[in-house]
Amino acid sequence: MLENTRRMAGTTATETTRARPPRRATRSASDPPASTVRRGSRRSTRTRSATPGTVGGGRGAATKRRRTLALVIAAVIVLVGIGASISPYRDYRQTQARLAAKEQQVATLQSQTDELANQAHRLQSDAYVEALARKELNLGRPGEEVFVVKNLPETTPASSAQEAPRQAGPLERLVTAIRGLF
Asked: What is the DSSP letter of 93?
C-alpha cells in the first residue's frame, strides 16, 4: 500500500481514477433486474407500473409534490421576510413621529427666544422702560401726581357696543346643525 501511495503522489487526477478497481460486471441473485436500476442517481429506484394512473403517480406526481413544496417554502420565506420587516418599519414610523414633535418643539422654543430677544432690545430704550413703569408700577415723573382709579371696566362703552354678540341667522343655524350631525 505504501508503494501505491508513493506511486499515486506523482500522478494526476486522471491517472488516479484509472488506479481504481473496475466495477463488477456480473449480477448476483440479490441484485434487482437491470431495467429497474438507475445508475448515477442517489434516489431509490422504483419500478414503473405497467398501467398509467395507478397509485404512486409516477414521475408527474413527484414533480407536482416538488413544485408544491417549493411554493410552500417560498411562501414561508416571504412571510418571514414580511414579519421581519414590520418591526423596523414600525420603529421607523415612531422615530419619524418623535422627530416631527421635536422639530415642532424647537420651532416653538425658537419663537419664544425671538420674542425674548425683542423684549430685551426694547428694554434698552428709555421710552419703553418709562411707559412700562407708568403702566405696570403706577410710577410717574418727579413733580407729577399719580391717581389710581379702581373698579373700572376694562372696555369702554364705545368698544362694548361693537363687541355685542350677534345672533346667528337661519343659514348659520342650519350649517351648525348639520355639523353637529357629523
From this structure: H
CA dist 47 and 37 (Å) reads 9
Name the helix (H) or strand (E) containing 7.
Answer: helix 2-9
Q: Is the pTM of this model over 0.70?
A: no
Cβ(8)–Cβ(19) below 8 Å: yes
C-alpha to C-alpha distance for 25 and 56, rounded to whole angstroms: 32
Nearest to 59 by CA among 49, 68, 73, 74: 49
User: Helix or strand or coil: residue 79?
Assistant: helix
Retrieve residue 53's grid coordinates: 394512473
Q: pLDDT of 51-83, one tens digit each? A: 555 555 567 888 999 999 999 999 999 998 888
Least confident segment among 32-36, 121-125, 128-132, 133-137: 32-36
List all residues 6 or more positions away from 138 whose beta carbon is below 8 Å from its beta carbon: 146, 148
The cell numbers describing 62, all together, are 413527484
Please give the Cα distance from 147 to 138 (Å, whole number).
Answer: 9
The distance from CA 60 to its chain's CA centroid, rounded to whole angstroms, is 43
pLDDT for 30-59, tens place per residue?
555 555 555 555 555 555 544 555 555 567
The answer to whether 144 and 137 are in contact (CB under 8 A) is: no
Question: Which residues make Cβ contacts (< 8 Å) with residue 22, sequence separation at least 6?
Answer: none
